[in-house]
Design brief:
Blueprint: H1 2-12, H2 14-18, H3 22-36, H4 40-53, H5 58-70, H6 74-87, H7 92-104, H8 108-121, H9 126-138, H10 142-155, H11 160-184, H12 189-201, H13 205-218, H14 225-235, H15 239-250, H16 261-267, H17 271-275, H18 284-306, H19 312-324, H20 328-341, H21 346-358, H22 362-375, H23 380-392, H24 396-409, H25 414-426, H26 430-440, H27 448-459, H28 463-490
Length: 496
């Protein structure tokens, strides 16, 4: 809605260009008044009549497109926009509205073409560039999206949405580079370092310490690893151990930039050098440095964002960080703050509800999920979230219809089968729970579903099946206990 308000005035100006008679001028004014009053369907009727009288006027075609779009008829507006653009291929507003209409209909390829046409005609058109950057990022064309967001930040350094989009683009590129590194083989020093850095960003210090130690075993001469361990030691209040690692870092031989070109480029912040090799190379080293660079560029974008006046984008970044750190109640507060800037944003509302649920504030989460479901009644995800939250509130009978409806739209959803099994067990319907428990067994990491299925078999007169599952449950429990003990030992922060 905001996007189109920006252009209502300039589009409606076209009406005066064709008002060659008193009758046409009167109708033009009437249509303009209808638009101002929010009577878009009525305005469209008048514009259609005017077009019949002045069929080749691109301004009238744009006005009709505006009325139809505001009335919710994007599909009906497209032929008129196409006609306006054909009549005058340099008419940038026609291409802009055409691109936006295609986006609303999910037709991304023609939308991109239309928006690129706008930018060829008007390279400084920030609204078109913003739309183009957003659709490119949604299609995971992050390199192209980053280029568009970078131009937006260059044009307006106070553009919060552009800095946020730029950071997200680089995050997406970092994930892509890490995936490429992962395919070349896990457990390399490069893979261990990137994973350790991710753990460190999420304040999982013990896991990061363990990974850095393993990376150091594989790459003892790599710069920065001792320093990273020293940082963890200082955060965990072991300054004497940190000093030892810092001394080891100082004792490393200087970099040889003739052979260690990428590491030297990293130290000198020559990021264009670090990003270039992945276009011609497919090595663990090239993907490692590219991923590291993208993470750094994303961080720089978010730091710039943080320095700007308060915005929804600032709170989005904070909420996502807190969510990764499993600080769900604090993340929920950030989503609430984001909603103050954009009260009708459904993504913000859903994220708020999810974080309230994860923080076990089920009573607060439920009405939010229900509000979202009212607008998307066939959503498998929202039906599941409403049903599962009702189950959390000990309302299994109320939960079952939502969970069953979710499975109608997504019959292979294992979490939904698991929740529906829980609900049926809670009301004593063991036989109804069994098929859902069987389907959900691949998600059983602690043996609890095996135990529940065993109990259900026994309750329905199938003790032999129950006995076998109980044996599986006991083995899983023993294995889990051993793994937990081993993990605790590995993740201890020990001296150098």
């Amino acid at each position: 809605m905001k996007f189109f308000r920006l252009f209502v005035t300039c589009v409606l100006v076209w009406s005066s260009a064709f008002a060659q008679s008193e009758n046409l001028a009167e109708k033009s004014a009437q249509a303009r008044d209808m638009m101002a009053a929010g009577k878009f369907t009525e305005a469209a009727v008048i514009y259609r009549e005017l077009i019949r009288q002045v069929p080749d006027n691109p301004g009238l075609l744009l006005n009709l497109r505006m009325a139809l779009q505001m009335a919710g008829d994007d599909r009906g507006s497209i032929p008129h926009l196409q006609a306006a653009a054909k009549f005058d291929p340099k008419l940038a507003p026609a291409w802009l509205f055409l691109g936006n209409a295609y986006l609303h209909l999910g037709r991304t390829a023609p939308a991109i073409d239309a928006l690129r046409t706008v930018l060829r005609l008007q390279p400084d058109h920030q609204s078109a560039r913003t739309l183009l950057a957003g659709v490119l990022l949604s299609l995971d064309r992050a390199t192209e999206a980053a280029a568009q967001y970078r131009k937006l930040t260059e044009a307006d350094s106070a553009n919060s949405a552009a800095w946020y989009g730029l950071g997200r683009s680089y995050e997406s590129l970092a994930v892509r580079e890490f995936s490429a590194l992962n395919q070349l083989g896990q457990d390399s020093a490069f893979w261990l370092i990137l994973t350790a850095e991710a753990k460190l960003r999420d304040q999982q210090l013990s896991s990061a310490f363990y990974l850095y130690r393993r990376a150091l075993e594989k790459a003892p001469n790599m710069h920065g690893l001792h320093a990273a361990l020293a940082g963890i030691y200082r955060q965990t209040e072991h300054p004497e151990w940190a000093a030892i690692e810092e001394e080891k870092e100082r004792q490393l031989a200087p970099l040889n930039c003739s052979t260690q070109k990428l590491e030297c480029a990293w130290n000198d912040a020559r990021y264009e050098v670090l990003l270039a090799p992945t276009t011609t190379m497919n090595s663990s080293e090239s993907h490692f440095w590219a991923a590291r660079t993208c993470n750094q560029l994303a961080l720089q974008a978010f730091v710039r964002l943080e320095k700007l006046p308060p915005s929804s984008e600032q709170h989005e970044v904070k909420a996502q960080i807190l969510n990764r750190q499993k600080r769900y109640s604090e993340a929920a507060n950030e989503w609430k703050a984001a909603l103050n800037f954009s009260p009708d944003n459904p993504e913000f509302l859903e994220q708020l509800a999810i974080n309230l649920k994860l923080s076990q504030d089920y009573a607060a989460a439920l009405p939010l999920f229900q509000k979202l479901l009212q607008k998307h009644s066939t959503s498998a995800e929202l039906n599941y979230l409403v049903g599962d939250t009702l189950l959390d509130l000990q309302r299994p009978e109320d939960a079952i219809p939502y969970l069953e409806r979710s499975l109608q739209h997504s019959p292979k959803s294992l979490p939904t089968h698991k929740s529906l099994a829980r609900a049926n067990l809670a009301i004593g319907e063991d036989a109804a729970a069994i098929p859902h428990l069987k389907l959900a067994l691949p998600t059983d990491h602690d043996g609890s579903l095996h135990f529940q299925l065993a109990q259900a078999y026994r309750a329905t007169g199938q003790p032999e099946l129950g006995t076998r599952l109980l044996a599986d449950y006991q083995r899983m429990q023993a294995s889990r206990a051993a793994e937990s003990q081993s993990t605790q030992e590995e993740l201890q922060i020990t001296p150098p």
